[in-house]
Amino acid sequence: MLAAPINPSDLNRVEGVYPVRPPLPAAVAGYEGVGQVHALGAAVDSRLLSPGDWVIPSPPSLGTWQTYIVNPATAWHRVRSDVPPQYAATVTVNPLTALRMLRDFVNLAPGDTLVQNGATSIVGQCVIQLAKLHGLHTINIIRDRPGSQEAKDKLKQLGADHVFTESQLDIKNIKSLLGALPEPALGLNCVGGNAASVILKFLRQGGTMVTYGGMSKKPVTVSTSSFIFKAELRASVFEAIEEEDRVVENDDGGNPALLGSCNDRAKQLHASPSGRLLTALVSEYLEWAQLSHTMKVYLPECNLPKDFWKNELKDFSNKSGAEGSRSAESGPMLLDVLEGYLKYEDFN
C-alpha cells in the first residue's frame, strides 16, 4: 500500500462503535487507499493488471492499513499513477458521497443554492467544487476556532459563495445573510445537534435536509415549526460519513446493487427463502402504510434492490393462494400472515 487515509469511520471501527463491524480477531483497519501491484498470481490475466500498476480496492474493503495485501485481482481497480498518491487514496469514499448527495435527493438546476455544515471536511470541500462545476451556489458553515479566517479563504478559493462560522449565525433573521442568492433547496448535515437546526433555518419552504453524519455525537435538533411547516426531512443513511448506499452496476449487467450497508446477521437471513419473504412482507407493509421515508432507508440497509419484494410476494401469492393485489381497505399481506398464524396456533 502506498497511502491510506484515516477517516472518522475508521476510528469508529477501531473504537468498536461503528454499526458495521469487521470480523475479529484478525481485523485490520482502513477502508480505502491506493497500492502498487507487487506481484501477480500465475492465473491472473496480464491484461487486467501488471506489476507496478497503481490500484484501489473496488468496492472499498477493510484492511488498507497494512504494508502488503493479498487479494483476488478482481478486488482491485487500476488507476492513473500520475496523480498525487493522497488523491488516489481518497477518491472512492468522500468524493462519491458528495456527488451522490448532489444528485440523489433534489433536482438541482444551475443557479440553485445549497447549504452545508462541516464544510472543511473532505466531503464538504468536494461538495463546494462539484457545486461550482455545475453552476450551483453554496452556503458553508464552519466551527469557530483559531485559523477560521484561513479556512474561509481556502473554501472560497475552492468556489464557496459564502462561508460563516457558527457564531456569525446567531442572529434572528438568518436569511438576511443570503444576499442575492436564492433560498437553499438542499441542506447537508454531517454534524448533528443544534448545527442541524441552523441548516433548517436556511432552507426554503419544502427544502430537503440530508443527514449523512453525526460528528457532534449529539441527536439532530429540529424546532417544532421547522419540522411541521418548513422542511421535508429525509432519513438518508450514508452511514456515519461516507460508505453507505454506493450504487454500482453488477458484472452481469443486471440491476444496480446497494453495497456495504448490510450486517452479517441480516445477510444470512436474506440468503434464505423465508428470510427474503420476511423482508418482502415488511416492505409491502411499509408501502401500504405510506411510510416512504422508512422504505428509502430500509431497503438500502437490507442490501436489496428497490423492487425485489414485489416478485417475492408474487411468487408467494401464486404458491399460497393469497390475494396479491392489496388495497387500503384490505390491509397489508403481513397482517393476513400473522392472523393466519394466530388462528393456526389457536391464540386469542
TrEMBL record:
<dbReference type="Pfam" id="PF08240">
    <property type="entry name" value="ADH_N"/>
</dbReference>
<keyword id="KW-0276">Fatty acid metabolism</keyword>
<dbReference type="InterPro" id="IPR006594">
    <property type="entry name" value="LisH"/>
</dbReference>
<keyword id="KW-0444">Lipid biosynthesis</keyword>
<dbReference type="InterPro" id="IPR011032">
    <property type="entry name" value="GroES-like_sf"/>
</dbReference>
<keyword id="KW-0809">Transit peptide</keyword>
<dbReference type="InterPro" id="IPR013149">
    <property type="entry name" value="ADH-like_C"/>
</dbReference>
<dbReference type="Pfam" id="PF00107">
    <property type="entry name" value="ADH_zinc_N"/>
</dbReference>
<dbReference type="InterPro" id="IPR013154">
    <property type="entry name" value="ADH-like_N"/>
</dbReference>
<comment type="similarity">
    <text>Belongs to the zinc-containing alcohol dehydrogenase family. Quinone oxidoreductase subfamily.</text>
</comment>
<dbReference type="InterPro" id="IPR036291">
    <property type="entry name" value="NAD(P)-bd_dom_sf"/>
</dbReference>
<dbReference type="GO" id="GO:0141148">
    <property type="term" value="F:enoyl-[acyl-carrier-protein] reductase (NADPH) activity"/>
</dbReference>
<keyword id="KW-0275">Fatty acid biosynthesis</keyword>
<feature type="domain" description="Enoyl reductase (ER)">
    <location>
        <begin position="2"/>
        <end position="299"/>
    </location>
</feature>
<dbReference type="InterPro" id="IPR051034">
    <property type="entry name" value="Mito_Enoyl-ACP_Reductase"/>
</dbReference>
<dbReference type="GO" id="GO:0005739">
    <property type="term" value="C:mitochondrion"/>
</dbReference>
<dbReference type="Pfam" id="PF16045">
    <property type="entry name" value="LisH_2"/>
</dbReference>
<keyword id="KW-0560">Oxidoreductase</keyword>
<keyword id="KW-0443">Lipid metabolism</keyword>
<protein>
    <recommendedName>
        <fullName>enoyl-[acyl-carrier-protein] reductase</fullName>
        <ecNumber>1.3.1.104</ecNumber>
    </recommendedName>
</protein>
<dbReference type="GO" id="GO:0006633">
    <property type="term" value="P:fatty acid biosynthetic process"/>
</dbReference>
<dbReference type="InterPro" id="IPR020843">
    <property type="entry name" value="ER"/>
</dbReference>
<keyword id="KW-0496">Mitochondrion</keyword>
<comment type="subunit">
    <text>Homodimer.</text>
</comment>
<keyword id="KW-0521">NADP</keyword>
